[in-house]
Amino acid sequence: MNIDERLEAIAQSVELIAHMQMKNEEAHQKNEVLLGQVMESVNSLARIAHAHERRISDLEDRQN
After folding, report:
1. φ, ψ for residue 41 (rounded to 5)?
2. Within 10 A of 51 (CB to CB), how many other CB atoms are there?
3. Cα 41 to the chain's mean position, in Å?
4. How far is residue 56's CA from residue 11's CA, in Å, rounded to a whole number?
5. Measured between alpha carbons, how far is 12 from 18 in angstroms, rounded to an integer?
6. CA pair distance 44, 46, nearest whole angstrom
7. For residue range 25-60, what is the model confidence (pLDDT) as tens digits?
8. Dist CA 26 CA 20 (whole Å)
9. CA–CA gap between residue 31 and residue 20 (Å, rounded)
10. Is residue 1's pLDDT more than 90?
């Protein structure tokens, strides 16, 4: 393998690595969006659970 072939192989490797990095960054951004949506859902469920807990407590207090 001569120097030109080696340089071409290195250039191809760098292009491949750059492409893989771009794909990783895209996936990371998508994961951040999904994580934000999951956090919103969890917060919403926590608010609902808290409201139900208050309603149950109020009903129990009225029965006593």
Report:
1. -65, -45
2. 10
3. 13
4. 67
5. 10
6. 5
7. 999 999 999 999 999 999 999 999 999 999 999 999
8. 10
9. 16
10. no
